[in-house]
Amino acid sequence: MKIKEILAVLDNMAPLAYAESFDNVGLLVGNQNEECSGVLVCHDALEAVIEEAIAKKCNLVVSFHPILFSGLKKITGKDYVERSIIKAVKNDVAIYAVHTALDNHQYGVNQIFCDALGLINTKILIPKTNFIQKLVTFAPLENADKVRNAMFKAGAGKIGNYENCSFNSTGTGTYRGNDNSNPVIGKKFELVQANEIKIEVTFEKHFQNKILKALFESHIYEEVAYEIYELQNLHQNIGLGMMGQLPEEMDENEFLQMVKEKMQADGIRHSAFLDKKIKKVAVLGGSGSEAIGKAIQSGADAFLTADLKYHQFYQAENQILLADIGHFESERFTKNYIVDYLTKKMPNFAIILSEENTNPVKYL
């Protein structure tokens, strides 16, 4: 199996189009056309992890965090990033990162976080914006079903829990072909009035090229009329963070003790207790201070995240319990999820969970 075949499976798990614009995801090091000898899944692709991959005969490392985040002008081995890259290149080890592509997925990092805590009735905390587009096209009556179904197959027409969604209206299309035309209906220089169906579908924007290809290949017209619009609709199944509910409400201290145990945290920093019960919980794995306001707005009793600074705890404003459980801790089960996913999709291939603990934060 070539590395690129595994990358296709990974892109189905966490489409790279879901990633934030600041991020650096996908294949960071290596040749996708090489044969893959095995996959090692880790949290951070440090030098020790690359050495582990070499020892276990894995030439593809799938990492949650990208070891390459910003550009490199020199690679001299002066820091942990460069040493890891040098080790990987010298030993033909490819490195692939998922990061915010999996953060934004409805079954990704934050759903894993919620599942670990036993939260129910979960939904995206900050739905992704500017991600949905609408295509409008026109097809003759006898061709409409074929066109519509081809676009559905290419990824159009999915709204929430529903598929094959479209709006269709009938009307009259007109056209007159010139000397270079080859009309399917009518003749050159003839004004044609054809009974047509106007088909409207929405789709995630990264499917645009695939959907247009399906449209052109399935349509009988020589020239296909279509329009594409960017919608302001929120995408309810893609975005940062999650909201959920505890099966039973808990007092604040009991709640944090449960979080500490479930997420295997060595310590939790938190804002002042408010002497109220915790029922609705917002989470955002990794650095999530930007979501404090949204968590309060959503009516959450508590917000769990990481990397909160001193002054950000003031933003609780006596309305919510803020808790910093640690960056690694909030994402700690992500690599297990990746291993489980790849194993189910490729049951006869070597998928190995890294034994390296790459958490750089220690507690006294």
Write a structural description.
The protein is an alpha/beta fold and 364 residues long. The chain has 3 domains: 3-99 and 333-353, 3-Layer(aba) Sandwich (Udp-n-acetylmuramoylalanyl-d-glutamate--2,6- Diaminopimelate Ligase, Chain: A, domain 1), CATH 3.40.1390.30; 109-128 and 239-325, Udp-n-acetylmuramoylalanyl-d-glutamate--2,6- Diaminopimelate Ligase, Chain: A, domain 1, CATH 3.40.1390.30; 132-233, Alpha-Beta Plaits (2-Layer Sandwich), CATH 3.30.70.120. Helices cover 27% and strands 28% of the residues. The protein has helices at residues 3-13, 47-55, 80-90, 100-103, 109-117, 144-153, 208-218, 252-262, 292-297, 327-330, 334-345; strands spanning 26-29, 39-42, 60-63, 94-97, 120-128, 132-140, 167-176, 191-204, 226-230, 235-250, 269-270, 278-287, 302-306, 321-324, 351-353. The protein has a 6-stranded mixed sheet. Strand 3, helix 3 (80-90) and strand 4 (94-97) form a beta-alpha-beta unit.
